[in-house]
Write a structure and sequence with these properties.
Belongs to the metallo-dependent hydrolases superfamily. Phosphotriesterase family. Pfam families: PTE (PF02126). Keywords: Hydrolase, Metal-binding. InterPro entries: Metal_Hydrolase (IPR032466), Phosphotriesterase (IPR001559). By secondary structure, the protein is of the alpha/beta class. Helices cover about 40% and strands about 15% of the residues. The chain is built from eleven helices and twelve strands. The radius of gyration is 18 Å and the shape is globular.
């Protein structure tokens, strides 16, 4: 190295208020939403910054220090208000770029970004006034359509340009193998830069173990009213992964998508339940070391990047 050159920067977590050493992230809700708008949930928008602040403060009072918001482009992510919330509450917030499934957008809005999707993702990650820290994409039910493959190709390109992690919505917990084939095979994204969301929505522990063996992170979300039929299996999945030596692949998040799902002013369980309900159960059943790993150490690695 030329002695006048600065040494390469280590991994950093890109928050809405700037880059953060991973060790400062703290207890993290690794998959949630503070703002969200989609035609698939009419009248159930997350659009109230006061309510968002109340939920964040309740999460902080329970011991939380960081939240990754997976709301992508075109779904009301409101990055400027995320920055204001981070300042007001002291919670580290990681925002997303990317696109969800085609059903969440109009054909006209998708047409406006065709041909420059990767460029838009890179701009959100590197030059926007409030920068994103992850790329959100989405698979389909047991497979990938042309829209998903297009978005994932752009996400892979943006990853190679920036180093950003890629977070994936798995429809009802399915299709992980197809997603990894596109992102890590054709797209050449390292598996440890991929976060697979919603695997718990399918109670197939074999698929969860296979995904963990790939080296990807597994983001389990819930419990929730919407996914209660599989949420009750969450503990068994985490225990099976830990027993197989994959405790270092696990992330946990609330995935609050409607106002009614919030702990403050809604029917819950919301963000705080991760720490007031789930964390004590994990400590009792799987130990404090495992619990610290999934809430602190794993998110610090998963969301950190050597930004380019």
């Amino acid at each position: 190295m030329n002695p006048q050159e600065a040494p390469p920067a280590g991994p950093l977590v890109r928050t809405v208020l700037g880059d953060l050493p991973p060790g400062e992230l703290g207890v993290c809700d690794a998959h949630d939403h503070l703002f969200l708008r989609t035609p698939l949930l009419p009248g159930q928008e997350l659009a109230d910054p006061v309510a968002a602040a109340s939920e964040l403060r309740a999460f902080r009072e329970a011991g939380g220090r960081a939240v990754a918001q997976w709301t992508p482009r075109g779904m009301g992510r409101r990055r400027a208000e995320l920055a204001a919330l981070a300042r007001a509450t002291g919670i580290h917030l990681v925002a997303a770029t990317g696109l969800h499934q085609a059903a969440h957008y109009t054909p006209e809005s998708l047409g406006r970004v065709r041909g420059r999707l990767a460029e838009l993702f890179v701009g959100d990650l590197t030059t926007a006034p409030v920068r994103a820290g992850l790329i959100k994409v989405a698979g389909g039910f047991h497979g990938l359509d042309a829209h998903a493959r297009w978005v994932m190709a752009a996400a892979a390109e943006a990853h190679h340009a920036t180093g950003a992690p890629v977070a994936v919505h798995l429809e009802l917990g399915t299709g992980a193998a197809a997603v990894l084939d596109v992102l890590c095979g054709a797209g050449e994204v390292p598996p440890d830069r991929v976060i697979l969301g919603h695997l718990g929505r399918s109670a197939d522990v074999r698929a969860q173990l296979a995904a963990a063996r790939s080296g990807a992170y597994l983001a389990f979300d819930g419990p929730s009213r919407a996914h209660h039929p599989t949420d009750w299996r969450l503990f068994d999945s985490l225990a099976a992964l830990a027993e197989a030596g994959h405790g270092d692949r696990i992330l946990l998040g609330g995935d609050t998508t409607t106002a009614a799902a919030r702990a403050v002013g809604g029917g819950g369980p919301g963000m705080p339940y991760l720490l007031t309900g789930l964390r004590p159960a994990l400590e009792a059943g799987l130990g404090g070391e495992f619990t610290e790993q999934v809430f602190v150490a794993n998110p610090a690695r998963a969301f950190a990047a050597r930004w380019r």
